[in-house]
Write the structure tokens for this entry.
Amino acid sequence: MFKALRRKAVPPVVEQRNIRLSGKEISYTLKRSGYRRSIALRIDDRGLTVNAPLRASEKWLHSVLQDKADWVVEKLDGWLSKKPAPIFWAEGARIPFRGEEFILTLTPRARGAVPQLHGEVLHVPVGAEAEAVHIEKAVLLWYRTEALRVFEECVAYFAPLLQVSPREIRLSAARTQWGSCTARGVVRLNWQLVKMPLHLIDYVVVHELAHLVEMNHSPAFWSVVERACPEYRQCRAELRSFGVAE
């Protein structure tokens, strides 16, 4: 008997390219995969990514990109305008938290000490001469700790309203999702969400909890969301402006 031949998985081929679209020079990442049958464009904080079949012709690629030229340029410009200014990790830096801005101040190091928020100032116990990498590490750890606390408070409030009981709340660092929910009741929430205004945090929490009632995005699902978050449409539109899916 002949053994069935198993097709070897071919890793995606990745290239960095440039193209002129609507009068602008655009850099993009081209990813070719043997599993794809169509060309898809994605724009996020890393710029434009083109996913294409392994043997897609140059003519086909060029045609798709030119057809979508105006859309690509508009979306990339939108990303640049919304992209937050980089944080310079030093005394006096401003950081976002729950939709507001807080100022960093560096305090003397102490064993076991963690950043503390007092009014509009976050006290970071790393020493006045701390390097940027150490300041950033301390603040990111604080962000994650606060994110879990804020998310758990939101879940404690909204879960009874939706009559659900999530099994576990976990943090995620997904680049393309604010949250997710498994059929087993594990809710994952992007820790960076804690930088957003509280009404958007509430909406994402409600959205994921609603999946414990309806594991889909049917009209029934949105009806569940609306019970706890009547303004969910406005929240969805606001979140989309940040370029990350729900």
